[in-house]
């Protein structure tokens, strides 16, 4: 008898949390439907706007062409953007490595980890573009502000990611090594980093990809040169849709190359370690 | 190193001595209360007692992974409780430790884990770079062979079975060239067969290498079979300290309190013999 009773019990009982979640989802969907129905389109003809946009897309993606930029120029500008991404990831990674060690709960005292985690959470909460603009006050709009701002945000992002990777190593393993007389730095380099090297790498590549995308945006928004600035000039100044297409394709191509390299590197490291 | 620690040692002096060791966690009932015992070189000692009796705390007070609240602990003629950080590190190199959950770095190979036992002897930089001398590597290989792990040398530790992991744990302790090995429930997570292999290895370590071994155990039968001496702990106090033959059913009842009835069934064979 008892067994049957148990079988009828729902797998997921309706708790307060799940009820709140359902109500929240319901309210959000109702709001979305209402907003779509009640939007004031005024003079915009939705059909025509849609068609024009698609037409622009067609020009951008099916008829890319170089007018202002030669292919070599475009390539060189992408390299500049890539450099910006590389530099900010490198700076960010080195600083975050140290902060990450101090923010990992199995490696540092609780007060220290709390302070650092709180600090980087604050930095992360502000978008990187805002940090660039904040630093532009001191450094002026341009590549310097972009590097500092992006580095700043990378540090906070990677500190969180690294410290969580470090925390994967059980506290008791560290205790075991301490009991054999090893000191903190030895444990870090001989146990903690080897254990987390693959996740450190994948987080770093992840950030590199984010920084590449950010660097494109910074070229436009902060005048940090690179392909993003060309994109900005083509779209906002020359209205050259066909060149926008070319530049976009360049960026996509590079992003794919980056992705391929990172996937290969990661699998190589994983195989070596296995 | 050897000279430095061995200067004042006379042959008759015990290797390890605990005097009035007491440990309080946050003011509640003491985890350890007035612990006194001394250990001669080469002894194989089991510490038994119910869960939460303070066995682990006792073991960890010896190498100061846990700081005793009061009392004196001396090891090899050195007063451990007074040591500064750097000297404590040096002293810990002479005390190996083995754990219930092995506490190996899973993503590293067997030999890398074994060599970790040498870190305490190295300068920070040499340790950070992972520079091990050829002798150290050779010694690691010898110990791995001795423990029957020669086919696993370059395997990652997460690919090993529990018994094999614990043997790596023993190897890591042995390469420290220790005078004393502390074992915290070394066989609690192992099947009976692997447990026997591990206990046999520990007995060999003690009998053939002359290393003193102190083992925390759950199983009274194992303690009876392997130890030279048994220490029974209950509620932070030593209630029995003597040879296995002196451990009578009444004494076991005293150590384990109400849990002892179940144990008697387990021990049936011994009393039948």
Describe the structure.
The complex is a heterodimer of chains A (274) and B (273). Chain A is an all-alpha fold and 274 residues long. Chain A has a single domain, classed as MetI-like (MetI-like fold, Orthogonal Bundle). Helix content of chain A is 81%, strand content 0%. Chain A contains 11 helices and no strands. Chain A has helices at residues 2-8, 16-38, 46-62, 71-103, 110-125, 128-139, 143-166, 171-179, 184-221, 227-237, 241-273. Chain A is globular and about 70 Å long. Chain A starts with a helix and ends with a helix. Chain B is an alpha/beta fold and 273 residues long. Chain B has helices spanning 2-6, 55-62, 85-92, 110-115, 124-129, 134-146, 162-174, 192-209, 220-226, 249-256, 260-272, and strands at 16-23, 32-39, 44-48, 70-75, 78-79, 95-98, 180-184, 212-217, 229-234, 237-242. In chain B, the strands form 2 sheets. A 6-stranded mixed sheet of chain B has the order 6-7-8-3-9-10, sandwiched between helices. A 4-stranded antiparallel sheet of chain B has the order 2-1-4-5, covered by helices on one side. In chain B, strand 9 (229-234) and strand 10 (237-242) form a beta hairpin. In chain B, helix 7 (162-174) packs parallel to helix 8 (192-209). Chain B is globular. Residues 1-11 of chain B have low confidence and may be disordered. The interface between A and B is medium-sized, with 24 and 34 residues.
